[in-house]
Amino acid sequence: MPFLGQDWRSPGQSWVKTEEGWKKTTTDDTNNNVSPERFCKAEEEDCFSKENLLRSLNYDMAAKKRKKDLMNNNSKVPYFHREKWIYVHKGSTKERHGYCTLGEAFNRLDFCSAIKDTRRFNYVVRLLELIAKSQLPALSGVAQKNYMNILERVVQKVLDDQQNLRPIKELLQTLYVSLCSLVQDMGKSVLVGNINIWVHRMENIMQWHQQLDNIQIKRPTSTGMTLTDLPAGLQLNIMQCLTDGRDLVSLGQVCPELGTLTEDRLLWKKLCQYHFTDRQIRKRLMVCDKGHLEWKKMYFKLSRCYPRREQYSDTLHLCTHCHILFWKDTSHPCTANNPESCTTSLSPQDFINLFNF
């Protein structure tokens, strides 16, 4: 079968549009019968078609360049998907081949939008810290790049809001220590990409840490009522809402009045009972000379021995019926009669354990 190109006409033939319709003419007839106006019009149409062709080529090149920039390491735009949920499967079935990895879930669950939500911020930071401790080599190259891009957005949010400085510093310190040990172990191929890329990322981590150290907390311009203007009973009630003893210590350094309230024994007792069990507390009892329990010292001693209780305003959820992982406020195609009864909340550690095969 002969090849039919874009111009399938025989040599020497052309089609001309007339009042009666399209007519086929030869090259000789066209050269003898073409008027100056028709010739100029044909030239304009030819130039117009060439211009459209160049524009389409430019559009194609621009689209390819955007795609290349998205794949490039310098791109700050993370990968995103239309669905904000992911099907978690741990083995091959007749309907689905392969299994879901931690990196795939990390790319699909829209963590970039989650860090903008105050309810999810601490959850995402804790998850980033757990990945930095032990799961960073388990991520794919794309997931590792998304991890660094999300971390940069977290740091920028903290610099803009001037809040949550301590957990972000701890996250950066944990990640830097992990990368130092992994970079020294490059013979085991534990990281994806060139070693120079990871050295550059480690330099960025140190630079972010320096920016957080040099941040200047601005005093609010509001002249309304402050915490110290409230009665002591209300101040203690507000302090009981803090779940981290280090926050209480920092609050007590603001002024002598707050420092006296943060030494309240009942406040530290409730904090110990909130995070630890009675059995754990009995193993770490500390009694002062007057016969009273040193709840403040016991809290920090228990924190070094046992994990503290984690509480988050919003978490990832797993549908046990559909095996779909999703955020609480996003819908997923659940086929159960009562979807709420099949949904379980996942802590950051539960999320990591979900992909330990």
Automatic annotation (TrEMBL):
Region (Disordered): 1-33
Subcellular location: Cytoplasm; Nucleus
Chief place where the protein resides: cytoplasm
One GO CC term on file: nucleus
Basic and acidic residues: bias regions: 17-27
Pfam families per the UniProt record, alphabetical: F-box-like
An individual GO BP term: protein ubiquitination
InterPro entries: F-box-like_dom_sf, F-box_dom, FBX25/32
UniProt key word Transcription regulation: no
F-box domain residues: 224-271
Function summary: Substrate recognition component of a SCF (SKP1-CUL1-F-box protein) E3 ubiquitin-protein ligase complex which mediates the ubiquitination and subsequent proteasomal degradation of target proteins. Probably recognizes and binds to phosphorylated target proteins during skeletal muscle atrophy. Recognizes TERF1.
Subunit-level organization: Part of the SCF (SKP1-CUL1-F-box) E3 ubiquitin-protein ligase complex SCF(FBXO32) formed of CUL1, SKP1, RBX1 and FBXO32.
Protein name per its UniProtKB record: F-box only protein 32
Organism: Takifugu bimaculatus
